[in-house]
Amino acid sequence: MDLGISGRTALVSGADSGIGWHTARLLLEEGATVVVTDLDQSSLDDAAAKLDSAEGKLFAFAADVTSVDSIASLRSSVEGAVGEIDILVQSAGITGAQGLFHEIDDEGWTKTIEVDLMGPVRLISAFLPALRTGGWGRIVLLASEDAVQPYDDEIPYCSAKAGVLALMKGLSRSYASEGLLVNAVSPAFIRTPMTDAMMEKRSKELGTSVDEAIESFLSDERPYMELGRRGEAEEVASVIAFLCSDRASFVNGSNYRVDSGSVATI
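The structure corresponding to this sequence follows.
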């Protein structure tokens, strides 16, 4: 399907692996110029090297979403390399502090919110002027099933992702008249380095194999995931790419769940 984004320029954060990397791949395949960013330049360069791109279509700049100065430097690098962007995909995030509420200290809360909520805020603040100037723009934020179906052992993450949905909805009301459409995607239990680490930790705690840990997690913690498996990063990236496109020209302020039915409510 032609998504109508050939010649557009996209910035994808959290792009050294997982959902961000696959999103960058799909946008490149559709003819967009893509800038990928993540925390570590070395791992980002390795990830970029695995992307198939025409010369002058792919750029990689490291940035720390917890630092206003780092984001400002990223904006300067992006402007110098490609000019203004048309598409922003924010997928950088961490699991953050885990445990029951009384087990999580102030530092755990602060770090989680700094990355998972304030990270998107900082990135959007830096690039919003560019996204507002062309009469056509897209912002896609990565939220989570946890935003609307919180779990008691990761409340900071759930709270941050609920904030991301509120941020998305507010932005969608502010700038749609200028041609800038803002939406979110909420995945559930996708095969990424983040969930790999979660399952490795679970397997050690239970004294099982990782495959057994995944199976028990699906059975015990995610019973409404009717397909009975982890999702694949490219399955989420396909929805993100659609929301970045001309095909989504009447979609604004929406949260797309890519969760195998995990959220139990309508």
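The radius of gyration is 18 Å.
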